[in-house]
Amino acid sequence: MNKQAGKFAMKKWTALILAGALVFGLAGCGGGKASEGSGNPAPSDTSSFNKEGLPIVNEPVTLKVLTMRWGNMGDTFTQNQWLKDLEKNTNVKIEWQVVSSNDWGEQKSIMLASGTLPDIILGDQTFSDSDIVNNLSYFRPLDDYIDQYMPNLKAAMAETPELKKISTFPDGKIYSLPTRLPSRPKTKNQPVINKTWLDQLGLQVPDTIDDLHNVLKAFKEQDPNGNGKADEIPYTETGLAPDFLNPFGITDINANNMLVKDGKPIYYPTSEEYKEGLKFANKLYAEGLIDKELFTQDGTMTSAKQQNADAPIVGFTNQWTPDAVFGKWSDQYAAIPPIAGPDGNRYNPGNPNGMSFNRNEMLITTSCKYPEVAARWADQFYTNEASIQNFWGAIGTVIQKNGDGTYTLMDPPAGTSADAWYWEQSLRDFGPKYVSPAFEKNIVLNPKAGDGLKLEIDKMGSEYVTTPFPNVMYTAEEFQELPTLTTDIDTYVATMRAQWVTKGGIDEGWDAYVKKLNDMGLEKLMKIRTDAYDRYMSVK
């Protein structure tokens, strides 16, 4: 057997073994078809299933719940005291199947091909929009369950209509449950600058793009890190990040080249604002103020420059928080207000309603024999106290409940970052949650670290946040066309962006560029996205 044939055979046998193990594991844990004699009562049996109050069932029911976790995070979150108390109080026993993102892609394909699913899928990274839309027969429409068995979620949707908007699929039904995370900022990334360098050179925080140009020029020419070398890189990233174009009105939080302007979807790489932004970038590049390797380096190379061992060498960037990427030099960096653009206005990427909404946080599969039980179990997550405990950690472990009705986050163990601790102790970003906006004043965060620091930084840019192109939903037919359209069009846009930043010539090549995009199907792409946007906006 030659090497290629051997590799093929090995891959085939590996896939078959994995498929068998996965199907056996699910069936053995109560997923898929319920086994005879399991003792699980039918929820329609009124002597066992309770439509209101606790327990949810008088006799224990076991549900199989699958969720994906990043890398090697593991399943420590299952020891969250709130989750353990939930089992005791509801009589709903959970068998967790926790998979790693490292190999979930292959496992997911096998699961969807076999059609053998657990009772509940939890976390928006587990199954995507396209996974769900292309396999709708595996998932239960939840509208009637929400109406009959989920008063907490129903009240949340009444208070915050965006929850229903993001959860409604193109056929008008809800298949997955949403989340509204607590204490999230309105802004995404904001400008971050080396404040130590500014002070060293006697410079003010840049306010306009002209100021920014002058500051970056000083960073390049005046040795602000004081090591006697011309090693300063005023601006670097992995490619020209959309955030660099924020002063020109480009605020793309989803990196899909879309904006909403005057209530209409706009493909901004054909806009005059984009054109002017690239001209500005080309000016900086020509003067050596933008990293010459901007379009050729990967994330590892960028990180190495941001955390250069001998001295800080990066002057300006856009980040979530100042301490996000600079390692031991983090103390030198500070967030600053958005830079004013040519029109005198400031623009900040984010969401005026908060960076807190998502869908696909929980699905009930058609394999689930007890959907009413699953729905009532899910509804327990949609209270304020439940949500904060599933985002940070349990009361008494991570959160201190105070006598005045406030909640304070405790400090993490020595040597552990707050964010890592929260992921260890809770579902964190994944799973259903809803914290009422009125409740957030009761949450006490440390303003100098983690989520509290981000909220402090948020105050600089929140008033400048523009309405983003929303997280719309596409039909199965649209999902078939989108990959080809976006791959070809986005690749061409990225190629021309790199060319115009590094070599110039945008005025001369602009008309031919727009024509080629139209020839490649930009009109069809915009029709798909506009149709999806209109469906989203029509949900009441």
Q: Would you give an account of this structure?
A:
Keywords: Cell membrane, Lipoprotein, Membrane, Palmitate, Signal. It comes from Paenibacillus rhizolycopersici. Pfam families: SBP_bac_1. InterPro entries: Bact_solute-bd_prot1, SBP. The structure is a single chain. The chain contains 18 helices and 15 strands. It has 540 residues and is α/β, with parallel strands linked by helices. α2 links the parallel β1 and β2. α1 crosses α3, α10 runs parallel beside α16 and α16 crosses α18. The radius of gyration is 26 Å and the shape is globular. The N and C termini lie far apart (62 Å). The N terminus is likely disordered.
Q: Regions with pLDDT < 50 over 5+ consecutive residues?
A: 1-39
Strand order of the largest sheet: 2-1-3-11-4-14
Number of strands: 15
The main β sheet shows up as: 6 strands, mixed
- What does the oligomeric state look like here? single chain
Structural class: alpha/beta
On the 0-100 scale, what is the average pLDDT?
91
